[in-house]
Amino acid sequence: MAPKLKQREEREKTVLIGLVELYLITGKPIGSNTLKEHGFDHISSATIRNYFAKLENQGFLEQQHTSGGRIPTPLAYKYYAQHHFNAADVDPKDIERLRNELNKDTREIARYLQNASELLSQMTQSAIFLSSPRFDQDLILNIKLVSIDKERYLCVLVTDFGLVHTEILYSPKKLSSFSLKRIEKYFHFRMTGLERPKLNAYEDEIAAEFYNEILLRHIVDYSNFSAEDIYKTGFSKLLKFSEFQDASVLAKGLSLFEDTQYMRHLLEECAEAVDLRFWIGDELGRGTAHTSIIAVPYFIHGKSVGAIALLGPMRMPYPKIFGILRAFSAILSEMLTRNLYKYKITYRQPKTREIGLQTDSTVYLDQAQHLLLEDKR
Q: Is the domain of 243 the same as that of 128?
């Protein structure tokens, strides 16, 4: 490529980067005079307009009105994001906050990951997804029952790691709130071996039936681990962005947020790539022109075990988000590695593949050994 032509293309891309950065701040179409006033006073307005026209022909810019300024297209955002891919544009105060909030000594791993997701959502004002392996040595701490109607009861199971599971159970006879409390005491007796509560004949029968059903479902769910656990939070924060004031854009964003299978696919892709990934606009499918997803993997003992993804508007400060996500991943990885080592917690990934701990051929036998269903400490 001729030196002059190369220099011209570099200037065009510099103008493109400047326009995108200014549009990220204002959210308004950028004209040549406006851009000239923001760091491009060494270039004439006429030359800037020529660059705009060339960039528009290349698909980087679009003009909504003949006499109006230009706005970046998804292609422009992709170029801008790639240009800043290795950026470490993160405020030291954000690093300090991440360290203060994530530096927790805990064995409640599930609750820790949920709280970490909430923290990242607050810091970025975006929706967050986090995929997680299955952690072993968990204990059932408590089982609660809530009446739904005459026959159905909601069973809420809480584990030592902070997981909450729900199941629907059935009883041919209606159980009073008093009976439910006594059945809960029976569950506690079975889990701890402490004093057995006094139940009438039917309560005793249904309590044993409920308990066995709960444990059986829990074992089956635990053993048939075919996909990562997904934590998600923060969709309501997208309402603050002007892009999501449009009902159709909001609906498409919500469909992405609720499509756990699709999000799991993106998170798996990121974890396997072992590097930050981003998807902008139509890369997420038709009707997603105003949406972006950025994901970064996290690690345990140096091995990629999951990923964290941020869903937000296409008009987002990519260098800052890249920096925060990478810092979040590094600190989260450090804390998880430390806590799993301290509390001797093992983990598995989907399809019963426990990284670095056992082979696929022995996993089913080993599961029965380290799955502690009842807390009898």
A: yes
Whether residues 234 and 337 share a domain: the answer is: yes
Domains: count for the chain: 3
- Asked whether residue 76 is assigned to any structural domain, the reply reads yes
Tokens read off for 286: 């038709």
Domain that holds residue 126: 92-133+228-345
Same domain as 290, residue 315: yes
Evaluate whether 207 touches 199 at the Cβ level (below 8 Å): yes
**In terms of domains, do 58 and 168 share one?**
no
- What pTM was estimated for this model as a whole? 0.85
Residues 45 and 192 in one domain: no
Tens of pLDDT, residue by residue, the chain (377 residues): 567 778 889 999 999 999 999 999 999 999 999 999 999 999 999 999 999 999 999 999 999 877 779 999 999 999 999 999 998 778 999 999 999 999 999 999 999 999 999 999 999 999 999 999 989 888 899 999 999 999 999 999 999 888 899 999 999 999 999 999 999 999 999 999 999 999 999 999 999 999 999 999 988 887 777 778 899 999 999 999 988 988 888 888 889 889 999 999 999 999 999 999 999 998 998 778 789 999 999 999 999 999 999 999 999 999 999 999 999 999 999 999 999 999 999 998 886 444 433 333 333 323 333 344 455 44
